[in-house]
Design goal:
Layout (H helix, E strand, L loop, with lengths): L1 H17 L1 H7 L7 E6 L6 H5 L6 E6 L13 H11 L5 E7 L3 H7 L1 H7 L1 H7 L3 H10 L5 H20 L3 H9 L3 E7 L6 E5 L4 E3 L7
Parallel strand pairs: 1-2, 1-3, 3-4
Antiparallel strand pairs: 4-5, 5-6
Helix pairs in contact: 6-7, 8-9
Length: 209
């Protein structure tokens, strides 16, 4: 806690004081153009990863970067998504998974969670489509490979879940919204983006020198 309090002082005296114009603008409202959906994992910092300033990203974070399908539950994720698109006029959504994801490890062993972490068990059932796809189509892979595969497939599952929301479906139809799937590799700092043409994760356009 002492470190956090020291950080508060340093933020106010160093960062805030040198970005007064930015924070004055932000005090009058926010205008982010990207909704960034990612995991709660402490090793991920969306603004650091994308080198964006305060106010540029609207962020949803939870275990496993999961968006329950529309109507499945009255979740904060759905309400936040609706607000982002309808009120903030968000035009781009990024669903960003990451390597070594603890939630995805749990999804691979879902039955073991029911007794020890019942709430986590219930939450991960919103990624059941991912678990079933991997279980039935990748059974010949090693545990290490399966974790990489389930991380990648889960990003695509959550994109499909996003499309079940009426506001998302409508904006996609109008051509006013784009959705991107990313995977952040903790060990290399590299980000790969899903290419729907090749059905593979590749470096995002313009990301290489």
């Amino acid at each position: 806690m002492k470190k956090l309090i020291r950080g508060l002082r340093e933020f106010k005296s160093n960062y805030f004081s040198t970005h007064l114009e930015l924070f004055e603008q932000l005090s009058n409202g926010q205008r982010p153009r990207v909704l960034f959906i990612t995991c709660s994992d402490s090793r991920i910092n969306p603004n650091l990863l994308t080198q964006t300033e305060v106010g540029e990203l609207f962020i949803i974070r939870n275990a496993g970067n999961i968006i329950p399908p529309f109507g499945a539950t009255n979740s904060g994720e759905g309400a936040t998504l609706e607000y982002a698109i309808h009120s903030l006029e968000i035009e781009q959504i990024v669903v960003c998974g990451h390597t070594h994801c603890g939630a995805m490890k749990g999804l691979l062993q879902l039955g073991k969670l029911q007794e020890e972490m019942p709430l986590m068990y219930d939450w991960l059932k919103y990624a059941e489509a991912t678990r079933r796809l991997v279980k039935e189509n990748y059974s010949n892979h090693t545990d290490r490979d399966l974790l990489e595969i389930i991380v990648a497939e889960n990003v695509l599952t959550q994109i499909e879940n996003l499309k079940t929301y009426p506001v998302v479906h409508s904006r996609l139809y109008q051509g006013r919204l784009k959705i991107y799937g990313w995977i952040y590799h903790l060990e290399t700092g590299e980000v790969l983006a899903y290419d729907p043409v090749t059905h593979a994760y590749v470096p995002p356009p313009g990301s290489t020198p």
